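I am writing to request your help with a piece of structural work I have in hand. Here, with my thanks, is the record as I have it:
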Amino acid sequence: MREARQPVLVLVSALAIGLAVLGAPREVRAQTPTATPSSARPAPAGPPPSDAQALAVEQQLLCPLCVNERLDVCTLAICNDMKQLIRERLAAGSTPDDIILFFETRYGPKVRADLPREGFNLVLFGWVGGAIGLTAVAAGYALYSMRRDSDHRLARGASSRSGTPAAGDDRWVDALLDEAHEDGDAPRGAR
């Protein structure tokens, strides 16, 4: 009886190996490791978050690997995992501030897209505002002094060329009117 089972066992084994070889995938690809496998994450409990909510949170975060690249435009695997985690947390009922705080504690303050306006960052914003104000004051003073100098040059140039006093000086008008009165050409009541 043993001898009768042996050919059947060999035939079943050969058939199983043949099916395994034929059913095996022809191409093998490597997978990129993720920080948290998606199969280990619990399914979201609430309604799916809107894309606008998720996008608003993604725009406030930076990729932890790239330099100054926002999460919404980065295509690295870690960013895709972060985007998925944002959607899951929004669906679970987390607020956007809670999600940003979660990523900030995980990756550090460099993950925020904009600087918080507190502490030493206020000094940075103050320098920028002060520099802009100082530049505006300096430009205004420079324009005023150039305008004043050009008016003085015009007045001095006109008086030296014509031999008459400067335009703001009315003595020459009085002298011309006195001459006209003496000659009888000027109307009465003029100056």
In short: Residues 120-183 form one domain.
